[in-house]
Design brief:
Chain A has 3 helices and no strands. With about 90 residues, chain A is an all-alpha fold. Chain A starts with a helix and ends in a 6-residue tail after the last helix. Chain A is flat and about 55 Å long. Chain B has about 210 residues and is an all-alpha fold. In chain B, about 40% of the residues are buried. The chains are: A mainly alpha (about 90), B mainly alpha (about 210). Chains A and B meet through helix 1, helix 2 and helix 3 of A and helix 1, helix 3 and helix 6 of B.
Chain lengths: ~90, ~210
C-alpha cells in the first residue's frame, strides 16, 4: 500500500516534470525537432498514465492488447492518411 | 483486501469476472480513442498540407492557461489513482475525500477553459459569433482554430461527465443509511474513464497550444 502510494506520487512528479519540459522546449531554438519533442513527451506521459494509473502493469496480456488496440488502429489511420497526402505531391514540407 | 467478493452470473470465478470488467471498460475507452482520433487525423491532415497553419493558430491560444489546465488535470488523475487504491482497502471516507479533490480539479479545469473561451470570443476567434473581424489571417489557420473549438469542447463534455460520475461516487461512498455503498470496482472503472479523458488532453495540449516556429 505505502509502496503503491509512493509509486503514484512519483509518477505524478514525473508527469509534472515532463509538462515543464515540454513547455520549456517550446521556447528552445530546436526548430524542426519541436513537433517530435512535443509528441514524444506526450506519448511518454500517456504511457505512464496507461501503465500505472490505468493499472495495465497489473493486468494480463489479453487486456493490455485490448486497451492499446485502438491506438494501433489509430496508427493505421494516421499512417495511411499521411502516405496518401505525401504520395499525391500535396505535401509542402 | 475487503473487496466485493461476490461472483455474479455468468462468470466462473472472481478472476474471470474482474477480467470482464476491465476488458469491457478498455474496449469502451478504445471507442473514445477512435472518436478523438478522427479529430487528431483532421488536425494532422491540415498540418501536412499547411505546415504553417498550426503555428499561426497557436499564436491565438493561451499557452499558459493551457499549461495550467494540464497541470490541474494531471493532479486530478493522481487523486483518482489514490482513491482507487484506498477504496480497495475499505477506506471509503478517504476515497470519498480524494474523489472530491479530483472533482474540484475538474471544475477548476472547466473554469479555466471557460476563461479561455471568453477571451477567444472577445478576440473574434469563435466561428459564427462575436466580433465579425477575425484576427486569423490565413484560411488553413482558421481550420485549426475551428478544430480547436470542436476538440476542446468535446473534451470538456467528456470531462463534465467525469465530474458528475466522480461527484456521485464521492457522495455515495459516504452514505450510511444502510444502502449498499458503491463497490470498489465501480470506483476503479470510473477512474479508468477519468484517466483516459486526461490522456486525450495530454495530446490536445501539445498539438494545439505548443506549435511554434
Amino acid at each position: 500500500m505505502a509502496r503503491e502510494i509512493r509509486l503514484y506520487v512519483l509518477v505524478w512528479v514525473a508527469l509534472m516534470a515532463l509538462l515543464t519540459a515540454t513547455v520549456a522546449l517550446t521556447f528552445a531554438p530546436i526548430g524542426p525537432f519541436k513537433t517530435a519533442s512535443n509528441l514524444g513527451i506526450a506519448a511518454i506521459k500517456a504511457a505512464l498514465v496507461f501503465w500505472v494509473y490505468m493499472h495495465l502493469s497489473r493486468r494480463p496480456g489479453l487486456e493490455r492488447i485490448a486497451a492499446v488496440a485502438a491506438i494501433a488502429w489509430l496508427g493505421i489511420l494516421l499512417t495511411l492518411t499521411g502516405t496518401d497526402i505525401v504520395s499525391r505531391g500535396w505535401f509542402q514540407g | 483486501m475487503t473487496e466485493d467478493l461476490v461472483v455474479h452470473e455468468p462468470y466462473a470465478g472472481l478472476e474471470q469476472q474482474r477480467e470482464a470488467d476491465y476488458l469491457g471498460m478498455y474496449v469502451f475507452l478504445g471507442s473514445e480513442i477512435m472518436l478523438f482520433g478522427g479529430l487528431f487525423a483532421a488536425l494532422f491532415t491540415v498540418r501536412l498540407l499547411h505546415p504553417q497553419a498550426p503555428i499561426e493558430a497557436a499564436e491565438h491560444f493561451k499557452l499558459w492557461l493551457g499549461a495550467a489546465n494540464t497541470a490541474v488535470l494531471l493532479t486530478s488523475s493522481l487523486f483518482v489513482a489514490l482513491a482507487t487504491l484506498v477504496v480497495r482497502d475499505g477506506r471509503r471516507r478517504t476515497a470519498s475525500v480524494l474523489l472530491a479533490l479530483a472533482v474540484v480539479c475538474g471544475v477548476a479545469f472547466l473554469c479555466i477553459k471557460g476563461v479561455e473561451y471568453r477571451l477567444e470570443y472577445l478576440e473574434g476567434l469563435m466561428p459564427g459569433v462575436g466580433p465579425k473581424i477575425s484576427p486569423v489571417r490565413s484560411e488553413p489557420a482558421g481550420l485549426i482554430v475551428d478544430l480547436y473549438f470542436i476538440a476542446t469542447f468535446l473534451h470538456a463534455i467528456h470531462l463534465s461527465i467525469g465530474v458528475g460520475l466522480l461527484a456521485t461516487l464521492a457522495i455515495l461512498l459516504l452514505k450510511r443509511d444502510g444502502a449498499a455503498p458503491p463497490r470498489p470496482i465501480t470506483v476503479v472503472m470510473a477512474g479508468l474513464y477519468w484517466h483516459l479523458v486526461d490522456i486525450v488532453w495530454i495530446f490536445l495540449f501539445p498539438v494545439l497550444y505548443l506549435p511554434r516556429p
